Amino acid sequence: MWTTFRPLFVLFLATSPVLADDRDKALAVIDRAVQAHGGESALTKAQLMTRSATGEMTLFDKAVPFKDEMAAQLPDRLRSFVDVGEGEQKVLVLLVINGDKGWQSAGGAVMELTKERLGELREEAYIMWLSTLAPLKKDTSFNLMSAPDVKINGQPAAGVKVSQKGHTDATLYFDKETGLLVKIARRAQEAGLMVDKEYLFSGHKEFEGAKLPTKQVEMINGKKFTEVTSFTYKILRRVDESMFTKP
Hints:
The protein has one domain: Lipoprotein localisation LolA/LolB/LppX (outer membrane lipoprotein receptor (LolB), chain A), CATH 2.50.20.10. The chain is about 25% helix and about 50% strand. The protein has four helices and 15 strands. The strands form two sheets. It has a 13-stranded antiparallel beta sheet. Strands 12-13 form a two-stranded antiparallel sheet. β10 (about 180-190) and β11 form a beta hairpin. The protein is globular and about 55 Å long.
């Protein structure tokens, strides 16, 4: 038996330092990014916040305006009020996620989210949590690896692949000059189908010590789905439990 497994054991010993070195390299990128975004304390506080967004969403190959008022206690509590369209075509939707429960309200009718839809939205909240970067420094359940450098808007960016049990992998990209997070890429489930999603961040500004993006483009399978032209944030000091209860 020892003869059978010895090559694998030797291979493990030979590659472990390489894996450790790669994790250290990935952590160095994360450490620099955390400082570029205002530091671990400010980013941790930013996980409890409200956020206002305006932009356009592509529906049936047509760009329509939208507004989103969101409250979040990341990683698993969100309340989002979305106003899509104009005039008689306007649609108002309220979404609430509270751990393993979720609801949707449209036109006054409240429905529990299906298991599949809740799972999709929980993954979106998880990606938002990752984008605050602070969890990657102190949570040892994350597996961090270097990813190949890419160019984003013509500028070189360093990549870090993030894996955690129970979630799909995500790759975060940081501008090599500024250290700022400029892109997240992942595989995601949408309406029962697996798709490639990309989130492109820009226009970073400081909000109560945390440097956060004010613009974002979301791509699905290489096509633009949403473009946020303005994000504004308010960092909260305490949780208002009523924000995350059933509408």
